[in-house]
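DM from R.C. (forwarded with permission)

"hey, sorry to bug you on a friday — could you get me a structure for this? deadline for the figure draft is monday and I only need the backbone to look sensible"
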Amino acid sequence: MIGYLEGKILQKDEDRVLVLVNHVGYEVYLPAVVMKALSAKLCGDDIHLYISYQQSERQPKPMLIGFVDPVEKEFFQQFISVEDIGPAKGMKAMTLSVAEIAAAIEQNDVRKLQTLKGIGPRTAQKIVASLKGKVLHFVENRPEKLPEETSPDDILAPVMTVLVEQLGHKPADARLMIADALKRNSTIQSPEALLEEVIRGKALS
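My reply, with the result:
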């Protein structure tokens, strides 16, 4: 089983790269969001990828799908657990960041999920039905440790960034969502807790 590759880019195509590792070339498929993150990489550059190794009765030919970090790979494994989403379809569908897809799932945002390549209304509903409540921790990359002392701006600013820049809310709407979240729970002490409360409130509305 291949779980990680580190080598040089031997060839780069629209949806895959050929990675040279110890004189062996591995063809690795990359979701659009990963390809975008690696857009500056050229042939001959070093590369490292976390690999989701896929082989089944329905797909006897082994398929390697690469990600820049283990969080993306973990999300993908959950994403393809949804009925009707196999590895190839799941790979092509990841045209948005993991945080954006996870947020759409937690917010019942079926319309946004339909913007993913190859995802129609019925499949979008299945995604929400299968994964809602299971992917909240993917909404943002959480720091391992918070500063010992945090000011209000330390809590509010990261959440504003996620809501506006990653989730596409208008600044005024984002501030209102944050205010409502703090009104429901005034004991919040971290950006992660605040974001969870914002998303929870939106799901209930």
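R.C.: lifesaver. The mean pLDDT is 86.
me: no worries. The beta strands are 4-12, 16-21, 24-29, 46-54, 63-67.
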